[in-house]
Structures are given as C-alpha cells and as structure tokens.
Amino acid sequence: MNIIEKNLDGTGLKVGIVLSRFNSEVGEGLLKACEVKLLALGVLADDITLATVPGALETPVVLQEMANSEKFDALIALGAIIRGETYHFEVVSNESARGVSEVQLQYGVPVANAILTTENDEQALARIDVKGAEAAEVAIEMVNLLRAI
C-alpha cells in the first residue's frame, strides 16, 4: 500500500486569508493564531496575503477571486457567526459554508474554513487560538496532500 504521509511543511507556499470584520474581536484573534502557526510551519510573512470583508457572506466571492488569480497555493477563511435572536444565523452559517466549499471544489485550491459558528461570544472567544492555528495546519497539509497525489 502506498501511503501519503501528513506534511506540514509550508516552505515556499503562498497563502491567501479572507477575514470577516463582523465580530472583529474573534476574527482578529483567529488571524493572530493563524499567522503565528503559518510562520511556524515555514510560510514567509511576505507570502501571506490578507483581505478583509464586511461579513461571512462576502467571504466566498473574495476566496473565488483569489483562487482564480492562481497566485495562492492555499486559502483560509476566518470569521465568526454568533447566534442572535433571528433565523439569520442559519442563513449566514449555511450559505457561507456552502460558498467556501464551492470555491475549493471549483478551483482545486484548498480552502481551510475557520469561520466559527457559535451560540455566544464566550464560545467563540474560547476557540480562537485552537481554530486559528488549525486553519493554518489544514491549509498547508491539504496543499501538500494534493501535490503528492
């Protein structure tokens, strides 16, 4: 059996990040954790491009443009959708996730989805360090996996 091993070497990779500004405290925390992990995995600061958008529903179109540009090896979506009192939470959560998934399937560029969907601010804040770092790892691992196939 041929086994493709997990590879987290980000050396030479170019990564695009789309950050939702809505729920900015959570987003900024995710970004910090993600950037620290990308650098630790060997991605150079100059090879990381950040674009910000108003909210999670705007994220997929910017990811799509980044993927279409062919400038990036991997993309990362960061943000937080926190439940409110209306059905809007479900709409934003479902549609942003669908859009993010469509980009990677259409363009073949891995997209790590770290748009948190939580019941409250406390849940979101408790997850920022882990989920931001995990997004970086997922992006790098998936680039290397696709290249190895």
Our count of helices gives 4
From the helix content, strand content and strand pairing, which structural class follows? alpha/beta
Strand content: 15-25%
> What integer value in Å does the Rg equal?
15 Å
SSE ordering: EHEHEHEH
Largest sheet at a glance? 4 strands, parallel
Uncertain parts: none
How far is it from the N-terminal to the C-terminal residue, by CA? Answer: 14 Å
Q: So what's the overall shape?
A: globular
- Placed side by side, the strands forming the largest sheet appear as 2-1-3-4
Q: What level of helicity do the residues show?
A: 40-55%
Instruction: Tally the beta strands.
Output: 4
What value does the average pLDDT take?
96
